[in-house]
Amino acid sequence: MRRRxxxxxxxxxxxxxxxxxxxxxxxxxxxxxWINTMIPELLWIALVEQQFGPHRGVEIITAFTRxxxxxxxxxxxxxxxxxxxxxxxxxxxxxxxxxxKGAAYAADLRAALRPLAAWYxxxxxxxxxxxxxxxxxxxxxxxxxxxxxxxxxxxxQAAIMTQATAxxxxxxxxxxxxxxxxxxxxFPKIQDYPDTELSxxxxxxxxxxxxSFFGDEGLMASGSTWxxxxxxxxxxxxxxxxxxxxx
Length: 247
Known about the structure:
With 247 residues, this protein is an all-alpha fold. The protein has a domain at 34-177. The chain has helices spanning 21-26, 34-71, 91-101, 106-119, 138-151, 157-172, 197-213, 226-237; strands spanning 12-14, 17-19. Helix 2 (34-71) packs antiparallel against helix 4 and helix 2 (34-71) runs parallel beside helix 6.
């Protein structure tokens, strides 16, 4: 007779506590606000993917962040997902990087981020632009607002694809490795979201991973003032009330 596998056999016991496989791999989860913190940090990814679609968008973002990682040895193992992290790169260096290294993607990256750069002058990625590139347009502001509104529901397709790209950047930087038995090990299947049960499980793992990575001293946490600056600027442009969102 086949021996039954004990319930919770995949959990690890530490004294009187049982630790889940995910928490054993990544540590305890941290409460990080999706709306207050993560949306401003990941908005640039959402704008690129909205304009060019998920496949070309990921190509642009991957090529750009690989060039950033290759630009200095101390940048090689950084996950360049959160916008605030780019604030550590000197402005002239980021402009030169985009203009000399980014022939295959620079024009597309600028096209996608120009609406944000024009209306949010403190965005950490604005250094890829020259001032002459920035033209104020009400349509651009409406585009930014619509993109942000589409991200409020963290489980929406647009929000999940944005978060999936952030997790992909962690894989690409070799800062994230997954045991074969976990749903996240089948990461490419997220392209089927939300139509399959597996893609929904992967999406759940992606959200949990970002909660950990954006926590205090997490691999994606920028420690910058950009998220607060983003919302403060939004109130300057157009005072509004935002309902509480999901964490």
